[in-house]
Amino acid sequence: MAWGAVAGRSVEIAESLGGHAYVLFPPIDDRRPPPAVRYAVGSLLTLAYLVREDPGAVVTTNPPVLLGLIALAWARLRGIPFALDSHPGAFGKLGDRVSARLLPVHRYLVRHADVTLVTAESWVEIVQAWGGRGLVVHEAPGPWGSLKRSPREVRNRPRALLVSRFGRDEPVDAAVAAAALIPEIDLLVTGRLENLAPELAESASPNVSFVGFLPAARYQMLVAEADLVVALTTEPTSVMRSAYEAVYARRPLVISDWPLCRELFPFAVAVANDPASIAEGLRRAVDNLRALEDQAENARRLQAARWESQLAALVSVLGLPRPDTA
Fold first, then answer.
1. Which domains are delineated in the chain?
2. Do the Cβ atoms of 223 and 168 come closer than 8 Å?
3. What is the pLDDT of residues 90-125, one digit of tens each?
4. Angle 103-112/65-78 helices, nearest 10 degrees?
5. What is the pLDDT of residues 163-218, one digit of tens each?
6. Most-buried pick from 34, 69, 141, 217 (CB within 10 A)?
7. What is the DSSP letter of 153?
8. Is the peptide bond before 236 cis (omega within 30 degrees of 0)?
9. Which own/partner pairs from 121-125 qualify as long-range (CB within 8 Å, at least 24 positions apart)?
């Protein structure tokens, strides 16, 4: 279950466990109610959902902690497993000041959850220090595992796709500045246009296009047709979902040069989060594009094997049968 999250991760984890996802208030339009209304309505709708569906286990995205509290209460009432899917923001990272103030509630949930899903072993250590059980769980293959690439359009200019939400941990400004240094490469940038800073849009060079927040089918098409997918973060413990998607889609990848990113994406081109390094990395990736494409299947197999191991561990902790044997 998730409130206000992009539905992909919730859907994919639920389906991998043989269940289904319940996602409220995904950021797909401008008609989302204010937080107080969302939390009141979300609480009532979530309770109604739990009563109606009576699931055998519950996994909730964190933040917000309120959803976790509701799910924990229901899980204890019904005697079912409860897992908390805590993103780095839930620990007060990524500029999430609300989650930073609510860390005592987060600690309470961690101590009472059967398991807390996190992005890195460093968070597992923190979860254990709080009295909980941590487990690293990343991204399932989802639709990317069987994605069929459409015929590539004939073009002379390489195309890089920077996947962004214009979040606080995303060095989009550095990437846009880098594009000015490599006018031979086109840079497409995703993200809700109302969150795009006017000064950034005005300063962008002609080879930069801001394409907006895309429907799933359109986004998948852009990933499939990109020469490069660019996934950058200023948070060392973040695992970019877009990087996982690129690997599952067998696309060459450019990532931020953090130890965790290098460990998870060993076939990617790593860059520092500054314009010169990003420009150099994109140029280097284009120059070695054929070699990166030849390595794409090996990267996908490595990632798929990692996911299978993580899924097996999660199924074991929750005491659930594997979906293929249920």
1. 2-137 (3.40.50.2000), 143-303 (3.40.50.2000)
2. no
3. 999 888 899 999 999 999 999 999 999 999 999 999
4. 20
5. 999 988 999 999 999 999 999 999 999 999 999 999 999 999 999 999 999 888 89
6. 141
7. P
8. no
9. 122/237, 123/86, 123/88, 123/91, 123/237
